[in-house]
């Protein structure tokens, strides 16, 4: 077999197992290489066959990475190294750099001399635009297409639909069956929205449809009929499967608002359909109580502020006092955003929208860091205080949450046992085993966990049964009129006894008057929080009004 032919057949063998990475193979005796056509096209290399490809490739490597690369190649060719495993940035045809991981091995001849050097290069900037399961364009395809429409100023109506409880199908029938369900569902979606728009497979079980031909009413009609069909009439391999579908939509018709902001609003509409409307079609404009133009504009500015190191955000702190002594016990960090055009913006008008946003973890980390930095100063004056920080359930969903949390604790030097994380019952929507693992790591480290707004969710009892917590915070709704409302009295009695049965302390929120405070005396409540003691105030005000005067009193 002549040299080039052998090089080719070896090359074909490696390409089969390379799974999407670029393959290279070099005959070290002649220094002739063969490279994948995709790499040649992307990086603008001269040909799939190259003499001295190492030197040609070196020209594409970022100057800062080039020396390392050259050293590694020298070691391979001089026989010193039997392989090569490195990362570097390489320039593509359009001049931009992309991060690559390159792994190769040396194959030796019978005498032990290097004969071939072959391996693969993985391009970390190369996201797949096609979803392998459904064959639809992927999330990356969607993001690209929507940017393209934006650039051409084409208004779109965007629909997101997806399934609830799909993990049950995977658990019961297995992943292959689950994939089959998604494939059949894809077909149904395409049939239903035939020629009306482009369909995409987003993360998980979610799909998007970009359409220019449908009104909100027509889209709702098609969606509802699809939802009905997949609930009643969906068979996979002879098995009847009941699919629960959710759907949200937004009209993206303004080009002064980024496509990412619209994407956040779309996800908000989808989440509203899933959580509050049992899958009914939700159009963003219809569920926002505030003027939706204003909310979208405001969100657009807030998003850009997050990317600018959380510009305009600051924390207020609201004191929490011990019920019996009325001494300051801790405080809750509450976020605010301030801007010239919008003034001081309270969290309820942006947190629920941002929870669906990929930028939210960034803000969440900022909140944790800032509250621990401030908290450290507070502790110098009052060393027994606890700082409560609110977490959104979507933060817990992030892969790196625990790692980030402990990194921030380490970097700020905040004592862990003085931290309390407030979560809401909504986090029950997450995988319960994952939550248990996460909370046991948190609590084993001495950090406390409080359930916020207790009683407003749909599963209060179940929550306490499955997840151990240290504190239960009774929502203001049950407390504010307690002196005149018997139902509230029963609720507070029930909640405080329930918490006690699960060994959790109780904090009552929203105490505005002395009467309300007195009314709570007969229940098992440890701490109080409310305007009666103080509204949320800035860190400087906390220092001035609550801490400096208390210095040494602990
Ligand atoms: P929350 O965690 O239940 O916080 C208590 C809210 O009740 C605060 O509103 C506080 O100002 C208000 N409040 C406290 N005492 C009284 C009272 O006596 N009367 C009345 N009328 N209100 C009282 P705020 O600061 O507007 O926060 C609203 C919600 O936004 C918070 O409810 C929390 O769910 C969310 N939030 C605030 N900061 C953050 C944050 O840093 N991260 C996350 N994920 N959510 C946050
Ligand atoms: Mg809270
Ligand atoms: Mg609360």
Strand order of the largest sheet: 14-15-17-18-19-20-21-22
Could you describe the largest sheet, including whether it forms a barrel?
8 strands, mixed, barrel
Tell me, rounded to a whole number, the average pLDDT: 91
The radius of gyration over CA amounts to 29 Å
Q: What structural class do you assign from the helix and strand content?
A: alpha/beta
Bound molecules: ligand C2E, magnesium ion
List segments where confidence is low: pLDDT < 50 over at least 5 consecutive residues.
none
Number of strand segments: 23
Q: Please give the alpha-carbon distance between the first and last residues.
A: 87 Å
Helix content: 40-55%
Which term fits the overall shape? globular
In terms of DSSP E residues, the strand content is 15-25%
| Number of helices, where a helix is a run of at least 4 consecutive DSSP H or I residues | 21
Protein model, in words:
The model has no long low-confidence stretch (mean pLDDT 91). The chain is an alpha/beta fold. An 8-stranded mixed beta barrel has the order 14-15-17-18-19-20-21-22, surrounded by 5 helices. It has a 6-stranded antiparallel β-sheet with strand order 3-2-1-6-5-4, with helices on both faces. Strands 8-9-7-12-13 form a 5-stranded mixed β-sheet, sandwiched between helices.
List the helices and strands and how they pair.
Layout: H1 3-17, E1 22-27, E2 32-35, H2 37-43, E3 49-51, H3 53-60, H4 63-77, E4 83-91, E5 97-108, E6 114-123, H5 139-151, E7 156-164, H6 166-173, H7 175-192, E8 197-201, E9 207-211, H8 216-232, E10 235-236, E11 239-240, E12 244-252, H9 259-276, E13 281-283, H10 284-287, H11 292-307, E14 313-322, E15 328-339, E16 343-345, H12 351-354, H13 360-381, E17 386-390, H14 393-397, H15 401-412, E18 419-424, H16 432-444, E19 448-454, H17 460-466, E20 471-474, H18 476-479, H19 486-501, E21 505-508, H20 514-519, E22 527-528, E23 537-538, H21 539-547
Parallel strand pairs: 12-13, 15-17, 17-18, 18-19, 19-20, 20-21, 21-22
Antiparallel strand pairs: 1-2, 1-6, 2-3, 4-5, 5-6, 7-9, 7-12, 8-9, 10-11, 14-15, 14-22, 14-23, 15-16
